[in-house]
Amino acid sequence: MTTQVTKPRSTAVAPRSLRPNPAAVPLVLALLLIATAIAYPLTSGGARDAVSWTIVGLGSALSLVHAGTSRGRRTALGLLLLVGGTAVAFEAVGLATGFPYGEYRYSDALGPTLLGVPFLVPLAWLMMAWPSFLLAEHLARRRPVRIAVAAAVFAAWDVVLDPQMVQAGYWTWTHPQPGLPGIDTVPLTNLAGWLLAGTVLMTALDLLVARTRAAGSPRIGPAAPLLALAWMTLGGALAHAGWLGLPGSAAWGVALAVPVLGALALQRWRR
């Protein structure tokens, strides 16, 4: 009688150093976004337009990749559909009626449109929405507070961004006054509209994440999107003050960042 010897299956585990780091791709996208944003004030004309489109592309990709990596594919897909649909709905109504932002119009520089809304606009919302949500999630545990903080950060980001985009000629306001002190090209109604849109979007996004995230998530931390958010606000304020001739929005960017930085410092101190 012969005895058959079977070779045991290998159960070797790949060395830790050879395993792919799930946080690597979001971090690379964030660093590319920052590098591209630095190039914005150093360019002009068609080159600046290309930089703007690249920033939006990298920012939206960062949001989707991080959402998928940290919470799962269902969350990433839901994020894309929710933010895209909400952006088109609010912007299309805004263009047709002037509510809730005030009367404005887009230029042809932003390319193809859907219901009058350039395709780049929903991608810009996506770039802004996910980091704003993550920051609020980091700062607040109670849902109402978390939603309010996320909506405020979402709107504050636009306070810095909108004057830059008006300067670039991407859209114009029919009645830009009254505006925030130091900003004479964007009306206060725009800020009110962003707070309303942000509240609606962040309420839906909070529910979406709770219902779709994969077990055991978040799988990676929010470092990459929050790094991008920090640079796009504080770095944007620096660019506005030093290169773009927009001291008002630069000052507002710094002023709006102070409460967030204070809250982060207080949270760290309490730990």
UniProtKB/TrEMBL annotation:
<dbReference type="InterPro" id="IPR007354">
    <property type="entry name" value="CruF-like"/>
</dbReference>
<feature type="transmembrane region" description="Helical">
    <location>
        <begin position="113"/>
        <end position="135"/>
    </location>
</feature>
<feature type="transmembrane region" description="Helical">
    <location>
        <begin position="79"/>
        <end position="101"/>
    </location>
</feature>
<keyword id="KW-1133">Transmembrane helix</keyword>
<feature type="transmembrane region" description="Helical">
    <location>
        <begin position="249"/>
        <end position="266"/>
    </location>
</feature>
<feature type="transmembrane region" description="Helical">
    <location>
        <begin position="50"/>
        <end position="67"/>
    </location>
</feature>
<feature type="transmembrane region" description="Helical">
    <location>
        <begin position="147"/>
        <end position="171"/>
    </location>
</feature>
<feature type="transmembrane region" description="Helical">
    <location>
        <begin position="222"/>
        <end position="243"/>
    </location>
</feature>
<keyword id="KW-0472">Membrane</keyword>
<dbReference type="Pfam" id="PF04240">
    <property type="entry name" value="Caroten_synth"/>
</dbReference>
<feature type="transmembrane region" description="Helical">
    <location>
        <begin position="191"/>
        <end position="210"/>
    </location>
</feature>
<protein>
    <submittedName>
        <fullName>Carotenoid biosynthesis protein</fullName>
    </submittedName>
</protein>
<keyword id="KW-0812">Transmembrane</keyword>
